[in-house]
Structure formats: structure tokens, C-alpha cells
Input
Amino acid sequence: MRCITKVCMNMKINNRKDYAQAGLHETDVVANPISQFERWFADATAAQLPEPYAMTLATVDANGRPSARIVLLRGVDPRGFVFFTNYTSRKGQALAVNPYAALIFYWPELERQVRIEGRVSKIDEPESDAYFHSRPQASQLGAWASPQSQPIADRAVLTHRLAVLTTQYGNELPPRPEFWGGYRVEPDVMEFWQGRPSRLHDRILYTMVDGVWQIGRLAP
Output
């Protein structure tokens, strides 16, 4: 590739690493990928990683344009993976027209990643209410103050709106905004990646077929 800018010509990236901590065999995993995820997630939290809950969320809008961002996992159970956001944000607008998403967890300290694909739906309102009211008051007011993903003139817009809301509610907790709540990604594909030497990584793939999880292996 020919670089035409000084920055590109001066940039040298040479951070090769051979992965050798562990392997992953078909006999190492359990039949249900969410249970397998819970095993790996327990390993990540036990290792005291700085942010094991962080996951990349990728969506596609009405024009077929993808976008991705980091969000935090706020719940996982047999139904899927839950996160919270403003429904009018860019991701919320994309999910309104194309209710499918991909998630990626990357835990480099363990040389592992988990890739998830599936349909997305809003969680029940009582679930969103319960989580919203479990947050600190400042975070609750922040959800009201921020028109997420919309252009604003400067940061003063946010600080002013937050100040007005703080005065309005005092020590009381605000109701959950109708435009804010949770989504659940219901997986139909999950991949578990374990780094291995010589770039011959282990990739175990779960695919939902007629209501049953099938397990196979992918080439690295």
C-alpha cells in the first residue's frame, strides 16, 4: 500500500504477539453458548480485568450503513444480553428499522474474544424502570439531560440542562424517560475465540438451527 501523507509514511506498527495461554476444544465447551459465555465471563471478572462488561455493539441503519460503539453489558440470562440506551440515539434509530445487531467482547489479558449475533428487541418496561431507578440520581438526570447522538452547540448546553433538572427534582428521583430503556440481543450465532500460537487460533461456533444449538469449528 502506498501512503501519500507524512503521518502514514512515518507510522510503523509492529506489535506481533504469539498467543499461548490456553486452547479451546469442542469437548471443553458446554451445550448452551450462554452458559459457556457465563463461564468465560466469570474467568474475566475473577482475573479482575479493568472493564470485563465492555462490549462492542454494531448496528446497521436503513441505508445499510454500519456503525459500532462500546456499550456496557447490564444483564445476561437464557434470553440473551441486555444493554441500556436512549431509544432516539443513533443505535436506537438503527435498531428501529433493522432489529439485528452484533456484539463483541474482547479480553486481551486472557487472549479471548466472544462474538454474538442476533435479533434485538426492547425489554419490558418494568425491567427498564427497575434498572433506571437502580442508578445514581446524577446518572438518572443525565439520561434526561442528554439528547443522545444529536448535535449540540457546546458542553454548556448539557451542564445547563442538568442544572435545571437538578433544581427541579432536588433530592427526588425522576421518572424513567419514555425515550430511554433496555434492549436484549437474542443470539442465534455465538463464537468463542481463543488465541493460539502461529495464528492458528481456536474458534468454536454455535449456530441455532431449528431451535437447537449446533456446535462446530471454524478455521482461523
Remarks:
- The mean pLDDT is 94.
- The beta strands are 54-60, 66-72, 75-77, 80-86, 100-107, 112-122, 180-194, 202-209, 212-217.
- The chain has six helices and nine strands.
- The radius of gyration is 21 Å.
